Amino acid sequence: MRCVFVTRDRFPSSMYKKLEEVGRVEVYPYGESPWSTRGVPKEVLIDAARRCDALVIYIGDLVDKEVLDAAERLKIVSTVSVGVDHIDVEYAKRRGVAVAHTPYVLVDAVADLAVGLLIAVARKIALGDRLIREGRASPVWGSLMGVDLKGKRAGIVGLGNIGVAVARRLLAFGMEVVYWSRRRKPEVEFALGIKYVELDELLSTSDFVVVALALTPETERFFDREKFGKVKRGAFFINVGRGRLVDTEALLEALEDGRLAGAALDVFDVEPLPPGHRLAKLDNVVLTPHIGSAAVETRERMAELAAENVVAFFRTGKPLYAV
Ligand code: NAP
């Protein structure tokens, strides 16, 4: 009988039920919220790769060469995420292991959060909340002054599905939207009325830089000291892609020397962000703990889709969404 190994014990029950259609389901006693990005121990993944036919994982569960080398029976890795930077996809291919993910179903939720973060940092929402709770808020003219969105330029870096969804939303706020992506998207430019610009121009002219790139070996530390050196003085930086797209030290410098007016971040190079981190000490930074897709309906759909990928693979030889 096939064995399907799931690294979290509190995914929606519909997921485990679906997986039972194709094999015996083994569940790791993870204990925490299933959506914590703290990965399961390497030995657990190695052991599962050796004994099982399918692995269902979440962000943080590192399926690298070592795990894939242990794959004796493993045929498919299905992640409950669209991002696959925690999986060595090329090596999996070489080892004959399929990789599946959950695109599309989370796009609106992540775009909603990106816009929420943008407004939160532009209008000091999180800071205002903090000041009230600490009994320090005074409704004085001139305090907690933010900036308008209307008429400002938003530059989206990485116009994938999430980037497009963010663009749609920001246009509704009366913003001018420009983008840079490795591939130009004339059809989206035409449909939405947004403009492609070179990256340097985007950085030097945008009031808000919104990052929705995938993390790959080519995009790791994409935002380094040089790029932050090019951003318009007083711009805001929003990242809903992955933390390792950004050199955190360079970001901190840009915030501390005032080049950036603020930042709003859902993702970090180390997750969870260690307590007392320098980012958490800055009033002009809004932080959320990787909750881009954390809406009940979206997360349920992601979990179901990850299971459907496994079922489709064993029934037809192909997952619904192969990477
Ligand atoms: P997508 O449609 O596949 O878009 C991927 C984006 O990354 C595209 O803009 C693509 O550029 C760009 N890209 C990929 N490889 C690249 C490379 N080697 N060099 C330069 N650009 C590259 O995926 P999506 O659904 O929009 O998701 C984008 C990312 O958001 C995911 O990979 C994930 O890391 C992140 N995400 C975060 C959360 C969260 O909770 N914060 C949730 C979901 C996703 P082109 O289109 O121009 O090729």
Q: Layout of helices and strands, plus pairs?
A:
Blueprint (H helix, E strand, L loop, with lengths): L2 E4 L6 H7 L4 E4 L14 H10 L2 E4 L7 H5 L6 E4 L9 H6 L3 E3 L6 H16 L2 H9 L19 E5 L3 H12 L3 E5 L5 H7 L2 E2 L2 H7 L2 E4 L13 H6 L4 E5 L8 H9 L3 E6 L19 E3 L8 H21 L7
The chain binds NADP nicotinamide-adenine-dinucleotide phosphate.
Describe this structure as you would to a colleague:
This protein is 36% helix and 15% strand. It is of the alpha/beta class. The protein has 2 domains: 124 residues, Rossmann fold; 181 residues, NAD(P)-binding Rossmann-like Domain (Rossmann fold), CATH 3.40.50. The strands form 2 sheets. It has a 7-stranded parallel beta sheet, with helices on both faces. Strands 2-1-3-4-5 form a 5-stranded parallel beta sheet, with helices on both faces. Helix 5 crosses helix 7. The longest helix has 21 residues. It is globular and about 70 Å long. The relative contact order is 0.15. The chain binds NADP nicotinamide-adenine-dinucleotide phosphate.
Briefly note the structural class of the backbone: alpha/beta
CATH superfamily of the largest domain, called what?
NAD(P)-binding Rossmann-like Domain
Radius of gyration: 21 Å
CATH fold field value of the largest domain: Rossmann fold
**Strand/helix succession:** EHEHEHEHEHHEHEHEHEHEHEEH
The total number of structural domains is 2
Q: Widest sheet: strand order?
A: 8-7-6-9-10-11-12
Query: Which CATH class of the largest domain?
Result: Alpha Beta
Q: Major sheet: size, sense and barrel closure?
A: 7 strands, parallel
Q: How large is the share of residues in beta strands?
A: 15-25%
